[in-house]
Design a protein that fits this description.
This protein is 26% helix and 21% strand. The chain is built from seven helices and ten strands. It is of the alpha+beta class. The structure holds a DNA duplex.
DNA sequence: AGTATAACCTGTCTGC
DNA sequence: TGCAGACAGGTTATAC
């Protein structure tokens, strides 16, 4: 479900309230959530500690409890919210009866525990690629990542290259950059590659401004829908007219996943 | 090493 | 109404 803009929106919504809250207890309702440590160790490490910060790396949320941090990936249908949902997998009980719920219909979400000063060694985080909006995101590094004959859309979904894009924003970014999703990454011109480099953070920033894209499940920490779905230009719009040129938007399949494009604006 | 497929789950929607 | 099949915002183990 959530891509970088949705996770960032959830992060901001949580951080505005939860920093400083002391954890009194936690309840794991679905053990499959735990990726690397037992419920017992998790409790020992974070109960009694206060949240010092909420951070994000790619699509991962990082709850900083001081010496230890909890790293959560919401995958397709995970929700982290002050409102209880219908598929609760974890409840964090804070001071003054405050609660944070992790709900996840499809049960793909994961939770890892790591020492805060060794987060970059944690397996899910170790191999992530460059992070948009940080100083690691440079044109020089981006151009190196494109040195592959792989289709550009599939490359953009590879979290080891650029971290944070998912199926919605990969299609949107390629539309804005006027690049066909089936083009080879190493076949892009220098100008196209630079355009793509600039467009990625532009589209993501605009989505964050609009609190992300709600297709069905995604909600902010306070339970609200995003608004960027109203600004999508191609994703989910097969058969509709391109807002730029009027051509009919197409849906194709790449690696078992849907891609959307305007054949006129994004010639092969 | 890069790349394709299956797998992990549950729910919703579509067409017969 | 019922039911089979397709599809869904993500990643990863496994097989080439």
């Amino acid at each position: 479900m959530p891509e970088l803009p949705e996770v960032e929106t959830i992060r901001r919504g949580l951080a505005a309230q939860i920093v400083g809250w002391k954890l009194h207890d936690l309840l794991i309702k679905d053990g499959r959530l735990l990726g690397n440590r037992s419920e017992g160790e998790l409790k020992v490490r974070i109960i009694g500690r206060a949240i010092e910060a909420i951070n994000r790396r790619a699509k991962f949320l990082i709850l900083d409890f001081g010496e230890y941090s909890v790293v959560i990936h919401l995958r397709m249908t995970g929700q982290l919210s002050f409102e209880k949902g219908d598929h609760t997998r974890l409840i964090l009980f804070f001071q003054e009866a405050k609660r944070l719920y992790l709900d996840d219909q499809r049960r793909f979400a994961t939770l890892h525990l790591a020492k805060s000063n060794k987060l970059t060694e944690l397996k899910p985080l170790r191999d992530l690629g460059i992070e948009p909006f940080t100083k690691s995101y440079t044109l020089e590094r981006f151009l190196k990542l494109l040195n592959s004959k792989q289709e550009i859309k599939r490359l953009l979904l590879d979290q080891r290259k650029v971290a944070g894009l998912g199926n919605i924003y990969a299609s949107e970014v390629l539309f804005v950059s006027r690049i066909h999703p089936q083009r080879s990454a190493n076949g892009l011109t220098k100008a196209e590659a630079e355009e793509l480099f600039l467009t990625i953070p532009e589209v993501l920033a605009k989505a964050i401004e609009n609190q992300g894209t709600t297709i069905s499940d995604y909600r902010t920490a306070s339970g609200e829908s995003g608004q960027f779905q109203e600004l999508l230009q191609v994703y989910g719009l097969a058969g509709e007219n391109c807002k730029v040129c009027g051509s009919t938007i197409e849906k194709i399949e790449q690696g078992g996943r849907s891609s959307y494009l305007c054949p006129q604006c994004q010639p092969i």
